[in-house]
Amino acid sequence: MNVGGRHYRTIWPSGDGCVRVIDQSRLPHEFVTVDLHTLEDATRAIRTMVVRGAPLIGATAAYAVALAMREDTSDAQLERAGRELRATRPTAHNLAWALEHMRAALLEAPRAERVATAFRAVAELCELDVARCRAIGEHGLTLIRAAQAARGQRPVNVLTHCNAGWLACVDWGTALAPVYLAHEAGIPVHVWVDETRPRNQGAALTAFELGAHGVPHTVIADNLGGHLMQRGRVDLVIVGSDRTTAAGDVCNKVGTYLKALAAYDNGVPCYAALPSSTIDWSLEGGADIPIEERSPDELTHITGRSASGALATVRVVPEGSPALNLAFDVTPARLVTGLITERGVCAASAAGLRALYPERSDGDAAVRRAPASLQAR
Ligand code: MRU
To answer: Which terminus of the chain is more exposed, N or C, with fewer CB under 10 A?
Structure first.
């Protein structure tokens, strides 16, 4: 999508065998790119959230495997890369999916061809992600059109949580892809952007990318959404998903569950937009999804730009008060109006997903066949 009138993806080959990414830890204050040269660079970038968002975590992990192959093309190195990458962010299923994609491509390649094969496999994976996100956008656009038909000229108000835009993917985004297509189609659309404490992905990233692309939006405190829904000021909730179970439970950034509860209580449709790489076919119940626990510092401190222009990190919690920073929660399928996938919109249920993905009705055999070191925890 566009920044300063120029089209960007979030990740691309830099031309010298390395990988370039937008450093999301410095947005919205600075738009800078960084080069990843080694497996270790890429692993650190995922862990420290220089890159984040489930599909982009998957794409970066795939590039990390290609970088690992530049260092050493052995099977042992492939296993090591899988092990180290899998430990970076435990919740997003796209990570396991991307590692399996790379492993399948590399195990059948002779060692002398593994570097070239790896970079080809990553390029395929990235194009697939872009095509899937674009298709999600088209299917979601029908929902925004329907909302507009019911509302006349008044802008369609979409509420979103965290960042499930192009910055979370290779391009387009999941939850925001329908918004970008609606904007391009001239449909008046406005986005309520949850700030998304503690890391503020909404305030920092979603607001940045919508602003850079010229989409009207307003940042709100995480707790305002319920009130806006009660007053009829939200037409649709669209969020992303880090892991979706075969029964349609949606694990996404912490706070999504509360938005879905408020939407349910107020009769506001609540959709999760996700590429199928997010679906963990081996899980039925959301309670089995591993929830990432991050440093309490993300909660006790906050970073922003001071009046002098310098970036500053300040403490907002009393010294000595413990803080618990669980990064995701699970929204049960019964609270989700539908899933917007690259194949269309379906009910958030086992039957709904099976109808769109009949080939998966026997579960995620590919992932189950992978060695334990490459499986999602
Ligand atoms: O911790 P993050 O920033 O990686 O979390 C991102 C989200 O929760 C997104 O909503 C999710 O990845 C789905 S979007 C593409």
So the answer is: C
